Amino acid sequence: MTNTTEWQRPGPTRRQLRQDVFLGVGMALAAVIGTDLARSTSGIPVDMGFGGVGAYVLSAAVALPLCLRRRYPLSVLVVVSVLFFVNGEWNTFAFVGNLVTQATQFMAIYAAVAWARDRRRMKLTMVVVFVGMFGWLGWGFVKALNNDSIKGPGGGMLSPYVSFVLLNFALNVLYFFGAYFWGRTAWGVARQRHELEQQAEELATQQQANARRAVIDERLRISRELHDVVAHHISSIGVQAGGARRVMDSDPEAAKNALSVIENSSRTAVNEMRQLLGMLRAADPDLDDDLGVPAGKAPQAGADRLPALVSTANGEGLSVGFHQIGQPVTLPETVSVSVYRIAQEALTNVRRHSTARSAHVTLRYLADTAVEVEVIDDGRPKHAPVGSRLGHVGIRERVSLLGGESEIGPRPVGGFRVRARIPLNPTIPEGEPQA
């Protein structure tokens, strides 16, 4: 939010400047008319000065500076105040009877407070003007007392002179300070409007940034899912195809079994791809996009399918074991899916990028607070080809998104370890996609 001591009100628009010109000219014409009316109703001859037009010129001169009241508010206030004083001293009949002149001074004070950009200069100018005006008022009271010009029938609690002083002082307080506080209110409203517009701009910018972030996060989520789904099954198909080719002539039965595994892996990959693409295409992932009926989907990947995953990963020179520690509990869907995908990616990496002959998957339920999945092997990284390490990045992203911790790297006793611990009540940051 904008600091009130630092905020400067933007300058007036062209439309407002044009309005000020019309106002100043209109007030000047009204002041001339008001002076003529005051002359006609004065009841005594008055000195118009300067060939009979001086009073008219001076009355118009008081109002004309209002043409610049929003462009140069403090200068206009000073000029109007000086002319206001001169008009009151020399053109008394018009000053007392011409309400336009009174309104001009009021509007000059209001504009100075509402539009002055330098608030310290504004306050200093106000002090000078107010002291001058109330000093002039006090001097008028003194002259009236010396001349004994305030007379009346009396009869009240106070003398006519005291009543006159109190009444005029109260009216001037309302006049000058009313203009000041009205201008201050207008300035405060303008500042509040500016702050609201600024907040609206900041919110719009934040919404755009959140939208861009959501798109990026969704792309990352899709990338992780595609990598986890495709890489595992393609890796298995590649291994089985290589084994079938080597034993096709010597052991047709083994080759037939390998081809059967390839067939099952490809079907599973296709089903999972369809499930993922269906979720991306459909507004409701539980409905078929074309038919509007519940779509037949394969069971959702989850921690309960880890034994089946281990069974699929066994074979062709890699022995994979599995055991579970702790009392099983129902896992949140996001945690369950992440546990499965982490183990799946770790086993895929063992096959593709390691010389391991055995691996082991451990699922640990840590009371009611967290679940931990660990995949260890006894191999070393192959010299070629070198992996992209996107799988490790995806694992870390999944675990971090769910507020957990991960450990990926070589084991001190040999082999490689992938370990992830995820709390059972993950706190997913607002705007982040679920794993």
Overview of this protein structure:
The chain crosses the membrane at residues 21-38, 50-67, 74-93, 99-117, 124-142, 162-183. This is histidine kinase. Residues 218-283 form the Signal transduction histidine kinase subgroup 3 dimerisation and phosphoacceptor domain. Among the domains are: 14-149, no CATH class; 301-435, Heat Shock Protein 90. Residues 283-298 and 429-435 have low confidence and may be disordered. It has a five-stranded mixed sheet with strand order 1-2-3-5-4, with helices on one face. The protein has helices at 14-41, 54-63, 73-90, 92-97, 99-115, 119-147, 160-247, 252-281, 306-313, 333-353, 390-401, and strands at residues 319-325, 358-366, 370-377, 405-410, 416-423. It is an alpha+beta fold and 435 residues long.
Q: What are the salient characteristics of this protein?
A:
435 residues, alpha+beta, Heat Shock Protein 90, five-stranded mixed β-sheet, 11 helices, 5 strands, rod-shaped, disordered C terminus, DUF7134, nucleotide-binding, transferase, membrane, kinase activity
SSE topology:
Layout: H1 14-41, H2 54-63, H3 73-90, H4 92-97, H5 99-115, H6 119-147, H7 160-247, H8 252-281, H9 306-313, E1 319-325, H10 333-353, E2 358-366, E3 370-377, H11 390-401, E4 405-410, E5 416-423
Parallel strand pairs: 1-2
Antiparallel strand pairs: 2-3, 3-5, 4-5
Helix pairs in contact: 1-2, 1-5, 2-3, 3-5, 3-6, 5-7, 6-7, 7-8, 7-10, 9-10, 10-11
Mean pLDDT equals 81
Helical percent range?
Answer: 55-70%
Order of helices and strands: HHHHHHHHHEHEEHEE
SS summary, helix count? 11
Measure the end-to-end span. 37 Å
Morphology:
rod-shaped
Bin the strand percentage: 5-15%
Strands of the widest sheet, in order across it, are 1-2-3-5-4
> How large is the radius of gyration?
44 Å
> What is the number of strand segments?
5
| Main beta-sheet annotation | 5 strands, mixed
Spans of at least 5 consecutive residues with low confidence: 283-298, 429-435
Q: Strand pairing plus helix content: what structural class?
A: alpha+beta
